[in-house]
Each structure stands twice: as structure tokens, then as C-alpha cells.
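Service request form, structural biology core

Requester: graduate student, group of Dr. S.
Request type: structure prediction, single chain
Budget code: on file
Notes: please return the result as C-alpha cells.

Sequence provided:
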Amino acid sequence: MTARRIADARPWKEEIFGCCSDVNICCYGCFCTACLFGENVHTVNPDAGFCGACCCYCLTEAGCCCLVHKPARIRFREAYGLEEGHGLSGDLCASWCCSLCGVCQEAREIKIRGSPETAVIGGLPGAPISTTGNQSRTTLPATGALVTQPR
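Core staff response, request fulfilled:
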């Protein structure tokens, strides 16, 4: 994140331990964290792909999911212009100690803010990504986020 973007960083609208504030996301995250993580990654970066992110999370879920979650969380924050937070809400703790809570928090933020192309970043409306003939738009089931992806 550049110095200007850090200065413009906004607080999260959702708390790290607010998992139960959205029962659908909470249940989806509890029973299939890797799938919810894949949706979050795909919303922020459609080129990354849902399946790849989901599989990487599954492979590292036994105590090492922070290896894939922390970089994805940093990219997520940058896409939405969010501050890192401190202590339990920081990227390292959210991805190492409370990955499920962090993934659910990200999904709730997506649900509130929409996909990064429609979110307000740094106080200014984000420029929508134009779709060309080789792209399609998809709504993800858990968050309802609209994403653009190659056909």
C-alpha cells in the first residue's frame, strides 16, 4: 500500500469476532472455510480463480493456512482501502490465530461494500471495470458480490 493509501485507509465495517452477525456466512465459513476463502479471493482478484484459492487453503489448513490467508487478506485490504488494525484484528493474528473469523469478516465486508470495482476506496467511488466480449459477470452465492471474470 502506498503512503497516500495508508493515510486514506478506512476502518473495517465488520468486527473480527462478529462471525454470528450474519448466520449464513457464519455457517458457510464453519462448514467450508476453504470455499468461502476461495470466494473472497475470487471477488478481489477474479484472475486468481476460486478453485486455486480454495485448494491452496485446504492444503495449508492444518495449522498453516496463514501462509495463503495473510497475503490474500493484505490484497483484500488494499482493494477496499482498509486499515490493517492492531492486535487481534491485525493481518497476522487474523490469519494465524483466527483464520475462520478473518475469512468470515472479509465475506461480510464484501457483502456490505460490494465487489472492489463498486466499492468506495479512499473516499472516492471506485471506477467500474468495463466488460469486454471475453468477460462475464458472476454473482457469488455467499456474499452476493458481483465479479467480472474471463470467459
